[in-house]
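Re: the pair you flagged

First of the two:
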Amino acid sequence: MSAFATPTAVTAGQGVDPLFATLYAELHRIARREVRRQGESSPVSATTLLHEAYLDMSRRDALAFPDEGRFLAYASRAMRGLVIDRVRQRQAAKRGGGLDLTALDTQIAEDCSAPEGLVALGDALQSLEALDPALAQIVDLRFFCGLSLAELAPLLGLSERTAQRRWEKARLLLAQSLGEPAGG
């Protein structure tokens, strides 16, 4: 069950600390999901990942979030970046360390067992964010936070159908960036 079943009040421009405390359970769920996705090869525990993301976010000046959705998207990006950085560090220590590209579909969050695939996905998401930050935010909320389209649409002030169209566009752009066929 998502923390969005009973929305909490969010003050415009609210910083990291109050949102982190309010949404700790939801953030921990996201971190657990990310670590579980890595399986036995996970470079970090869920609590460590969550707390490192908090430390990273709290060091940044002038972070303000107008709503929970944007905060969760930013926090999930921070967690994703930490995992990708750790995977890259491990690969640098290994010889070779070829990357496996993963298909981007709605089941990838549960099925992705090769953390190396996250490096390619992270690079593709950075390209997408440079092209269209709103599409990257939808991917963060849908893929990394695990929200359904029905949950993320109201967070972003969109209709469910508009959110679905944007999700499909983001998937197409990511598939192109990953060099995969656009049919899936």
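Second of the two:
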Amino acid sequence: MKTCSRLQAGRAAAFACLLSCLAAGAAPAHAALGDTAPPEVPQASAPATTQTLAGGAARVTGYVDARGTRFNEYIAARSGQIFAYTWQGPTAPDLDALLGRYAADWHSGAAALHAAGRAGLHAARVDTPTVVVESGGHMRGYVGRAWLPAALPAGVAEGDLQ
């Protein structure tokens, strides 16, 4: 039986940790609100569902993240821009990552809502000129949606975002 020093064991553990981090980082990434959607690539580990909306004005791609939350990504057919997201599942999404460059608008809108005493305990709607975010739920049951009102394609209404 071969023995190894603590230094060698530490290096082996560090290498194993590095490999697991790289493997986790290789998980499919999704673009933020307002970004151009990446081309569709079939994924064996997390198959996505796709459907059209408003006579082809938009497509909706559904996927489940590693934590079990189901997302619908709404993409304008003409521009390829992601104009909305909806979610439902056991964990709340990272809204800063999901909203991308619109996260600051959401933060300022949420702060104004809170300062006015209108922030709900289990649900909130932050409505700014650039982005609207509705979120709510309770532990292990989160729901919400976020969209860019000015980017809704013709024929797509707020009520279509489910």
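The longest strand covers residues 82-89.

-B.
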